[in-house]
TrEMBL record:
Domain Enoyl reductase (ER): 7-341
PANTHER family: L-THREONINE 3-DEHYDROGENASE
Alphabetically ordered keywords of this record: Metal-binding, Oxidoreductase, Zinc
Gene3D superfamilies with a match to the protein in the record: Medium-chain alcohol dehydrogenases, catalytic domain, NAD(P)-binding Rossmann-like Domain
Enzyme class: oxidoreductase
Residues spanning the membrane: none
Name this protein carries in UniProt: Sorbitol dehydrogenase
Gene expressing this chain: gutB
Species per Swiss-Prot/TrEMBL record: Gimesia fumaroli
SUPFAM superfamilies in alphabetical order: GroES-like, NAD(P)-binding Rossmann-fold domains
EC numbers, comma separated: 1.1.1.14
Family of the protein in this entry: Belongs to the zinc-containing alcohol dehydrogenase family.
Required cofactor(s): Zn(2+)
A GO term for molecular function: L-iditol 2-dehydrogenase (NAD+) activity
């Protein structure tokens, strides 16, 4: 089969690659769409240590069942499917609690680190265990289905956030996950959603997707503007979707006394937290990681267009065009959001 392989850092080659074999409980999927994730771009140059070459990256994917293992039930060749990016073991303490995103033995598709190597979906075929697979409606476009992994991150973050009907939410960071979080937190019950970013194009898109207002962080005093729109109190809930000291501080300062801050972004492994502000104003701080069983809900939300992803898709490209798109995204292509790779395109 053909695959796009990270042969060395910042070097991708489309080449012949051994088609994965499937075990008795595995499914072989013909990939029809796989999104280039920000984590792939960050790993492309070796800075994360989680994309050690040689590796087939790609974990945001959907496709058609090509073959199933002897013990697979509920799936058959021809079915449209997507799958979780996290391969959970199903047996550890956390999996048995239903917290599959916290699995002690979790592996992520398209990741290679010191502990394991798991080839991903920038290829014609990928093998995945049936327990992380989900059936798709035949009328849901594959490129939309490939966005379900990203949607599930936003929906899980919204589920982790204590929202009451009529609350005000601030989303700090209007990148891909931030734009999805805007839609998810609105569905969760927030009647006012305020988007924050440095990019005016992203703020415009944020308003198209449901934000009431967009605040350009380098032009206004964001916490002060939030207070103006909340009777001087601050936001009930704030989702931080970047992961730096500056943006976390902004998130904390935007929250009202007794409010909640949900940390979604993790760009920096460590940050400075304004501890006294958190403690003396009795804020609740929540971490959120990946997703934990939200895929069926996300499929339904996409099919009903309650969450819209088409405006976030910048381009659809072939495997052969993949290396050039990686280079463009790594260089910071202006206005680019999600690029979807379809290995069936010639």
């Amino acid at each position: 089969m053909k695959a796009m392989v990270l042969t060395e850092y910042q070097q991708l080659e489309v080449t012949d690659f051994e088609q994965p074999e499937i075990g008795p409980t595995d499914i072989l999927v013909q990939v029809r769409a796989c999104g280039i994730c920000g984590s792939d771009i960050h790993g492309y140059d070796g800075s994360t240590g989680r994309r050690i070459p040689p590796l087939v990256m790609g974990h945001e994917a959907a496709g058609v069942v090509a073959a199933v293992g002897d013990k697979v039930s509920g799936f058959q060749p021809g079915d449209h499917v997507t799958f979780d990016s996290t391969v959970s073991c199903g047996e550890c303490f956390f999996c048995r609690r239903g917290e599959i995103n916290l699995c002690d033995n979790r592996k992520v598709l398209g990741v290679s680190c010191d502990e394991y190597r798991r080839h991903g979906a920038f290829a014609e075929f990928v093998a995945v265990p049936q327990h992380i697979c989900y059936s798709l409606p035949k009328d849901l476009p594959f490129e939309h289905a490939a966005m379900i992994e990203a949607v599930s991150v936003a929906v899980h973050a919204a589920n982790r956030t204590p929202v009451s009907l009529g609350d005000t939410a601030v989303i700090v960071g209007s990148g891909m996950i931030g734009l999805l979080a805007i839609q998810a937190i609105r569905l969760a019950g927030c009647s006012q959603v305020i988007a924050v970013d440095l990019d005016p194009g992203r703020l415009e898109l944020a308003q198209q997707l449901g934000a009431d207002v967009g605040l350009k962080a380098d032009e206004v005093d964001v916490p002060a503007e939030v207070k103006k729109r909340t009777n001087g109190h601050g936001a009930d809930v704030v989702l931080e979707v970047v992961g730096t000291t500056v943006t976390v501080r902004t998130a904390v300062e935007c929250a009202r006394k007794g409010g909640a801050v949900t940390l979604v972004g993790n760009l920096s492994p460590t940050i400075e937290m304004p501890l006294q502000s958190v403690v003396t104003r009795e804020l609740s701080v929540f971490g959120t990681c990946a997703s934990s069983g939200e895929y069926p809900a996300c499929i339904d939300l996409l099919q009903k267009q309650a969450i819209r992803v088409e405006p976030l898709i910048t381009a659809k490209a072939s495997l052969q065009e993949g290396p050039a798109w990686f280079a463009r995204l790594y260089a910071g292509e202006p206005g680019a959001m999600k690029v979807i790779i379809d290995p069936t395109i010639e």
